[in-house]
Every structure is written in C-alpha cells, then in structure tokens.
Amino acid sequence: MNHDEHIRQEVERSLRQASDRQLARVMGFIDRLPSRRIVEDIVERVRSRLALVRPSRPLTYARVLFLPLQDLLAEPAQAAGNPWLVPRPMLEVIREVVRRGLSPPLAAAVTAIPPDRTMDDVETVSRLGEVLWPAAAAALRDFLQHGGAPVPGWQEDYRKRLDGVAQLYEHAIDITALLEQLPPRPMGILTGEQETVALALLYSMRHVSDAVFRSCYTMLMRRTTEPSQIFRIMIDNDLDLPTDQRDRMLAEAAVECLNEIDSMNTDVGNLGAHSVQSAADTTVRLVSLIESLENAPAAVKLDAKTLSATKARASKTIVRTFENSLSGEMRRTVGDLAARTDATDEEVATAEAVARSTRKIEMAGERLGLARHLEGVLDREFGAYRTLLLDKLRQSRVGRRGGAGVSVIMDELRLIEILFGAEAAMAIIEEAGGGVG
Amino acid sequence: MTVGALLEDYRPTTFLERGVAVPFTTPLLACARVRPTHRQKLEFVIANPSGGIGFYVMGWDGLASLTRITVHDRLLYETVLKEPLLSPGTIRAAGRKVALSGVAGRPAAKAAQAALAQEADDRLIANFLLIVRLLNQGGVGQIDWRRFNPSDTDLRTKTRKMVERMEPTLGAGAETIFCWLEELSAIVAPVGFRSRDYPARMPVLQASLEKLYGGLMSFGNTDATEAGQIALFAAEVAKLTLDLSAVTLENCYAELDNLVRLLQSWGGNRERLLGLFGRPDWLLDGWHAICALWDGASSRDAQREVLMDIGRMVPVMPKEVAEWVDGNVPVERTWNQRRWVKANVDWRSGTHLLDRTARNEVLRAVAA
Fold it and tell me: Are B56 and B49 in contact (CB under 8 A)?
C-alpha cells in the first residue's frame, strides 16, 4: 500500500463513525495535508455533517478567493442543469486565471497569511477579500476578453459561467457582507431581521445585472432548507421584476428543490448502510425541504402530484432506513455493549452518537406523517432491546447477595432512552427494581 | 391549556425568588431556574421560550406536558425535591449525586466524581490554612505551612498543642475551636483567601467570567447580527456580576483578616457569616454553565448558535443585591431586555433537541 492509499484508508476509517468532535479533528488533519485531492471523495460523503458541525477552518488564500462562490459550488452533473452554479472542477481554472492576473506585490500580499488564523476571523477575511475579489474580477475579465495561454482543465462551456463569476467578484464585498449576517448552509427559517438581510441582498443586486441577481437568488435557494420563505420574499416585495420572469424563476427553483430531494433521498438510502449519522443529517434537511415546499405560495405553481410522489419515495426510504438501523447496526451495538464489561468511553460515545442519529431519522419521519409506521417499528423492536438489558442485569446478579443495581446496564439504558424515549428507559428501570443511585 | 403564569415584568426581590440554576439536560429546563413554593414544592422560572417578553412560572407537571424530559432530569428533580434548603451549593450536590449514577453519561459521572474529590480537597486545604492563619494572627508563632501536608487528616493532633494556647483568647476549648474552624472551612473553601493560596471555586469562576466577558465583547463588537446584540447584553450583565462578586468576595476576605475576632463572636455571628460567604455563590450562580457553553463553541457560527441560549440563561439581577454591596446597582438595565429566539424554532420537540440534550450532558461534564 502506498502512502496516499494509507492516508485514504485512515481518513475513511476515522470519518466513518466519528463523533462531531472527532470529525472536527479529522478535518483539521485533512486541512494540513499537502493535497486534499486524495481524500476529496471521502470528505464529500461527510459534507452534510461538516455543514452542521462547522469546525473552524484555517484561513487560506484559496478559501478567501472562493468564499463568494461557496453557495454556488456543485458537482458537474448537478451544475449542468443550472447555469448559475459553479462546477467544482472550475475552481482550479479560476484559481489559475486569477494567479496569472495578480500583480506580484498583490499576490505576495494576499498569500502572506499568518498560519494560526481561521476563517472565523471575519475582519482579516474581509480585509483580504477587499483586495483579492476586485483583483480576481479584473483577472477573469481580462482572460475572457483577451484570452491567454491555455488553462489546465479549461472547458469551453465555462466561458459563460466565468463571466457570471467575474460579475460576482465585482460585487463580492457587498454580497459576502450581507451573506455573513445569514446562517450558513443548511439555513433554516430566517428571523425577521435575517429576512430583511436576504431581501437587501436581492434588492441591492437586482439592478446590478441579471447574472448577479440570479446568482444571489441561487445562493439563497441553495443555502436554505425553507425555500418557501425565499419564494415569499420574491413574491411579497417589489423587486422590479416582470411577473413572468419572477414566476419562471420560482418554478425553476421549485423543480431544483424536487431534484435535490430525490438526490438526497438516494443519498439517505446509500448512506444508511455505512453512516447513520450522515443519513440522519440528510434526512432532516430533506424533510425540511418537503415541508417547506408543501407550504409553497400558489405563485410557485408547484405540481402537487410530483411533490406527492417525491414525498412518497422519501417516506419509504426513511421508514426503511430507520428500521434497518434499529434492527441492524443499533441492535448489534447494544448487544455488543451488553455482552461486555470493558467498553471504553469512546466506544460508548460513538454508540450514543449513532443512536441519536437513528432517532433523528425517526423524528424527522414523524414530521412527514409517518408516526404510525415508525412507532410500529419502535414497538416491534423494543422487546428485543429490553430482553438484552434484563438478561445482562440477571447475569450480573448471579451469585451476588443483594443484587447488582441498574448501574450495570447504565450505558445500554442511555441508548434505550435515546432510541425509544425516557418512558421506555424508566420502564426498564422500574422492572429492574428501580433506583439508579 | 394553561401550563403556567406569564410574568411580563419579572423583577425578583431576592436571590431565592430569582431561583437557582439546576443542571438539567432537557433543553427547555436547562435554561430554567428553580425556586421553592409555599407548599414545599418547586416551581420553574423560564425565559419565555417563544421568544416574547417575560418569564413563565410553571410547575413540574406543566413542564412535563410541554417537553420530553430526560431520565436524568426526572431523577434530579426527585432529588432536589428532597432538599430541605435550596441554594446553589445544595443544587450542585444534588446534581453531582445524580450524575454519579452515569445517567447523564460517562463523562458527566467522571466529572462529578472529580468535582467531589476537588471539593473535599479544597475543604481540607481551607481548614489547614484557617488553622495556620489563626495561629499566626493569634501570635502563637509563625508557622511554615509548607512543612505540613494539607491533606493530612491527622492535622488536628499535630497542631493541637498550639491551638490549646489560643483557648484563653477565644474563650473555648481546643476541641470547640477545631469544630468552629471545620465549620468555617466549609464556607471558606469555595471562596478561598485573598492571598489565592489555592484555586478556590469562586475566584476560578470569576476568572472564567472575566474571559467570557472579553469573548462576548469582542464578538458583539464585530457581529452585526442579532447574536451580536445578545453578546453585548450578556457581556453587560457579566461585567456587572463580576464587579458585584468582587465586592462580595472582598467582604468575605475582610472577615478572614481578623480570624481571632471572627471566632470570638462565632456563636452570635454564625448565621450572618454563612449568609455573607454564600453571596458570591448566589451571584455567580448560573454563569458556570454559560461559560462552558461559550467555551464549547469553537467557531463563529457555533458561537452565534449558543448565544441564542445564553440570551435566555443570563441571570436576572435581583433587587436584594443593592443591600449586599451598599450602593447603587444599575440593575434596571438588566431586567427584561431579552427578547430573542430563532424564529419558529420548535423548542419543544424535534431533532435538534437530541443534539441539545447531548450538548447539555457535555456541559454536565465540564461544569460539574
């Protein structure tokens, strides 16, 4: 096995069932790798969790350069259907074009970043961006107008997208200042104040250019798990937009959301097998999207049948994923813990994290009206878990006078509480003779 | 369904009326304070969970109908109910007792164990330092305390002869003097001494609060969102709490400056001293969890997230505090300033509650 393959395997193993804290640590390790490319596909699988855990990331030239584009980044297949998205491979082209276009003193200034800074250092990021983004816009403009030496990775259909990116960079200082005031992806329901910020973004960019306006609208749509709120901002405010154009934008975004839900649904089905945590995070976002679309304003003209079919597919996946986790990995984990007395703190913490994720899938499913199905699964499974715990308790009491207390099964009891609720755990405590102290 | 009364203009007169922060893990309860009722039960004071102005006052049954309460919290509630006296110290002890069972997770159990050991150590050290101070102040002779091991339980035997020489001055036998000092060490241990001989609980918490104040100010001055406003509000109350706790700590240290006089009037002064030395704990009550919450937020986004909870956890300053520090206290500004909530966040159920419960269990491990 070569060195890169070894690193890949280590990262994959570490990320598979990492707790949030561990995930942050592993990402810290990845950030220090000379090249992330060897593990990029593995990182991709935990991207949704990363968005939730949000570890502090080191401040780098590339991160600042791409900051204004972060909500537009997509895989090439997804970007193919939306001209406002930026396919990930295009970033290398942008990086190279900007590198060539920067004057040496400017390049030296923006790349000389103290090593201990993170992207949370808002002031430093803004200061660098104020210098870098206008320069990036100029470099891209110059490249589009005059061409130059071939750029590795260049594709002709990047030309139009690059033009949009150049326009974005021209206004990136204002755009990022406003976006900074909004929650990151996945962005839930906005407060009144945040809604005003979103409106200010759209309003201020409306007359800059159609490309910038559409890009900002796409950023908000991609960031949110509540698309109907963005729809309402578009409908309820006078953005000086012809009605037919506005309605077209709403309809296109709604279709994108439905596609996104289907894509997430596939992910949940696949992820459930090897990472319950990622599956749970994706399920929660997916359910939010469906709920929001169900409450979409009439002007969106969403096809109810299509939404209903999408929801039915998602519902099926959620019930199946939950059942598989509860009767499979989770029960094995509890069984394993019940059979041992030497489980480490880390093993218990990992089991609890998986249990929380399993329960999240169930709770998210309840929001889609699946309570009856999911409770049925819980009822069917509880007996098996209860038996595991009481057997362990019985065995621990053999030969002891006075008997062992509930503390013997405390790790497992906590898993029961997470998975089945406090009442179920209390019922087992009662059955075991009560008293945990 | 009526689950409690809404107090729009909530101005507690005393600290007991403000209630004590209880280390619950259920998210809704973690922001609540508990206070006794006339019928020897408990009621909860909770900053309006919908984000509106005011505080709700409700009983356990009302809360149980609003949210899913964890096993840990059910057991903790039962334990707290049995406490004859409600104070930050008794709640802390109850919290540790329940956490020791492991019901809030292994890290919380270990932290409770460590905290109990630390408390016992602090008490031994305080007792030892009180003996040394008494002998020095009483002119029995300068004692090099480095020659003694503070955790030596046989300290009484070794110092007995010297303490006997103080009997005429204090008007009591050596055994009684030792008993007084032991009693005194229980209330001095968390406060420590002006000379900072060991990291006592209250000065350590003060230092954490000072750090929190700096962090909140720096965040609030550079963040234009609602979280920035909450940070500045919390920083203002933190600063006020710091100033007031410094005064109450100094009042305690002043008493210890003349231990001979203190012990000469111990019988008549005991209740007053118990109250005096308990004041820093009442003032700082609730801030330990807030500091831990802030420390655990490792990125700016995470800080914005926890500030929503911090805004609801910042303790209201009762009017009684003015009597404690002999002066005007600008508490008016810190009454009902809080009115923040992430719009339409479902605070009663939902997947985020699982994460918050887990986060509160982590807090139990950090702020035991």
Answer: yes
